[in-house]
Amino acid sequence: MKRPTTPVADPSAAEAAVDPSAAEAAVDPSAAEAAVDLSAAEPARLPRPRADAVRNRERILVAARELFVEQGSAAPFDEVARRAGVGNATLYRHFPDRAALVHHVVLFVMDRVTAQAEDSLAEEPDAFAALCRFTHAAADERIGALCPMLSGDFDQEHPELLAAREALAEAVEVLVTAGQETGLIRTDVGVGDLMVALSQLSRPLPGIACLDVDGFVHRHLQLFLDGLRAPARSELPGSAATLEDLRQKTM
Fold first, then answer.
1. Which of 55, 59, 166 is nearest to 111 (CA)?
2. Once rounded to an integer, what is the mean pLDDT over residues 140-165?
3. 86 Cβ contact list (under 8 Å, min separation 6)
4. Mean pLDDT score of the chain, rounded to an integer?
């Protein structure tokens, strides 16, 4: 009677019994690579700023914007911090020097005014109504704060500023062009005319402590807007001003 023969053990099977991943590797060589922790390939996420830090930053920008309208960009840092309701250390943590604060106030105002132009055209029934809404909203955003800063040693060629300025110019150009093409806004004015008037009419005169300046601003802006209606009732001297004209004059 023959004794049953014992089959020879497969070494790879023995490894598979001990470590299942070895069996997978024997079947598919790429399995070992798949076992590598892929989390290392994921980009590191930057921590999101705390909600209170975001609020403080915006409060500083709003306070600085108001002071720059009233006193110019040389307004004291202590007063900016006081109006924002933050300590000086918080102010300097967000904006280490005056150049940084001025830079970010300009971007803050430009971005918000651009959004106002886009929203006005998208939501109002016609282009003139959109122009009126935009002009009053831009005054509330203190666009007059920009004028004193676009001269002197301000870095007008900073990439962030160039992008924000281009976006603002395009949004207002689209708004004005829509009104002119529909016969609602006179054709002998340009975006530069609008922005100069808006800046001048929304900034208080130096040395005048007027308690209700906003009431006069919106009153005078509406008088100006009525003068933009088509058909034109007068002939304007000179030619329509563009934003490029304004940039050339400030350089």
1. 166
2. 78
3. 56, 59, 60
4. 80
